[in-house]
Amino acid sequence: MQSVAVVGAGTWGLALAAAAARAGSETVLFSRRGEVKPPPGVRLTKDIGDAARHARLIVLTVPSNVAAEVAHNLGDHIDGRHLVVHGVRGLARDGLDAVELVTIADVVRRETPARRVGALGGPALTDDLLAGKPGVLVCGSQYDEVNRAVAAAFGCRTCRLYSTHDLRGLEWASALVGCLALGIGYAQALDMSPGLVAAVIARSMDEASRIAATAGGEERTLLGLAGYGDLLACIAQKERPEVKVGAALAKGAPVASAIHSAGSRVEAVELIPEIVAWADHRKVRAPIFHALHRLVRGEATPTTLIDDLMTFER
What we know:
Elements: E1 3-7, H1 11-22, E2 26-30, E3 42-45, H2 48-54, E4 57-60, H3 64-75, E5 83-86, E6 92-93, E7 101-102, H4 104-111, E8 116-121, H5 126-131, E9 135-140, H6 144-154, E10 159-164, H7 167-189, H8 194-214, H9 219-222, H10 225-233, H11 241-250, H12 255-261, H13 267-281, H14 287-296, H15 302-311
Parallel strand pairs: 1-2, 1-4, 2-3, 4-5, 5-8, 9-10
Antiparallel strand pairs: 6-7, 8-9
C-alpha cells in the first residue's frame, strides 16, 4: 500500500487527501487546526513530524505566503529519501530581488533536504475530487520516480494522472491560469458573447506561454492540460475562488468585498501585480495581465477592459 502525507488542510488539501485515500493509499493529513474533519479513510494529525514519518511521499498544499515557513518546519523532519510534491497555485518572492519570482519547488529545495520534488496541476476540480467524480491531474517533475510515485498514490478509476518533466512550466502554468481565471469570471459575469470569451482565453494563453517560456518553462506545457485544459475548466467552475472574485468585480463590488466573497484566500489577487512587475522587468509584453492588474486595483471598468481587448496589439 502506498503511503501519502498531505500537509495543509484547506479545500485543495482535503480534496487531494480524499483522492489519495480513494485510490487505496494510506493517507495522513496534517493540519494545525483541530476542527478539520478529514475525508473518509484519512487520518488527521497536528504533528508535522508524524506526517513526515508516515510517508516518503509528501504533498504540500499550503498558501504560497506560508510555503517557506511550512517547508522549513517540514525540513526538520525529512531527508533526501523523501519525495515532496506541491499543489500550490502560486509563486514566491525572492528575498534578494524585489521583482524576482521563484517557484514553490525552488522554495522546497531551499528550505528542506528534499531534492526529488514535483508539482501537481491541471483541470481537476476540488469538488469532483471530494465527491469521487472522474478528474484529471498533471504531475510535473524532472524525476521519473516522483511522477511514478504520484501516479501510484492518486491514480485510480476516478483519477487519471498525466506526467511531464517540465516542472517549471507546470508551476508557472498553474500560477498564471489562476490569475487568468479571475478574468474569465469577470467576462462571464458581463455576459460577454462566447466568441469574445474564446478570444480572451486564446489571447490569454498566448501571453501566458510567452511569460512561462521566459521563466524557463516550455511553451507547449501551456498548450496542454496544465494550461489550456485548466483554463477551459474555469468556464464551468462558478464556485472557483478566482472566478467568484472576477464575477464580483464585474458586478461593481469593491476589491476587498470581492475577495471576501470568495470565502478563501485567492493567490491571484496578490500575484497579478507581481507578475506584471516581473514581465515589465524582462520586457515581456503582457497586456492581458496589465488589464487584470488595473482590475484588481479598482482602476478598470467593463467598457475600458473591452476597449483594451479589442485594440491590443498581437
